[in-house]
Amino acid sequence: MDLDLRKLRYFVAVAERLHFGRASDDLHIAQPALSRQIRALEHDLGAPLFVRDSHGVTLTDAGQQLLDDAGPLLAAAQGVRRRVSVAARGTRRLTVGFRAGVAVTPAVRAFETRHPDVIVDVQRIEGDEQAAMLLDGRIDVGYVRLPIDEAGLRVTPLYTEPRVAVLPADHRLAGKEQITEADLAGEPLVWNADPSTQPTRRPHPNAGYQVRGVDETLEHVAAGRGISFLARSATVFYSHPDVSYVPIPDLSAEQVCLAVPAARTSPLVDDFVAAARATAEITEECGNYEMWQLGGESAATNG
Predict the structure, then answer these.
(1) What share of the chain is helix, strand, coil (3-state, %, to 5)?
(2) Which distant-in-sequence residues (6+ apart) come within 8 Å of 4 by Cβ?
């Protein structure tokens, strides 16, 4: 029996709240009707999804597995709707997402040479949305930076690039030619909500300021609230008079990848992926070198 997406959405609502009453309120349906839909889904799947007792509601192992799989599946369904809507307008369009500092122009130009009738849109994305935007169809292809939740995606490594330390301009290490991880031991870190993504072998437990994007990172660092790390290429496009960029060679390199939805079948997407892979080596060897020269001048100015 095919999986009913409406029942699946109802299941996710209950699973995320672990409360039938709150889920029914948010879904704007009666609780008995919601309970019937969940029982019907359990019957369809041949497995109990929840344990209901006097202590409340918990997920079974089968329920946890379904919750893990439901997100990409529902997002993929939304992606289908988006692509059908675009096709119905009679336009051929490809939307390419990219993280800060990643140069997409070489691949776009190569692709447009082969497909001059296709409109290519480019859109900057942040780390906490890169997987979701691919799965729900807001972007067709994404230049992403690891880590990324690869569930439902096909991820192809393109190149790596060094990182730099982002320091307040009056920091004791600002203006140095290079520093080490050990030099930054104990420094407060401006980072995102997931400490496991820190690119250091010496995790900073005191990540007091959680940020989203390069702009927020620079403002917090400039205010003296901590230090951070950025991919080398991003420093070329982002400068701040109160921030200094310092190379940190023993920090792990950042991996840039190309990601597409695993279930997506599209000759246009395949052609863009081929163009991206063909231009990636040039981007890494030539473009990043030139950008680093510019970045060095910027760091000197900011420091």
Answers:
(1) 45, 20, 35
(2) 41, 44
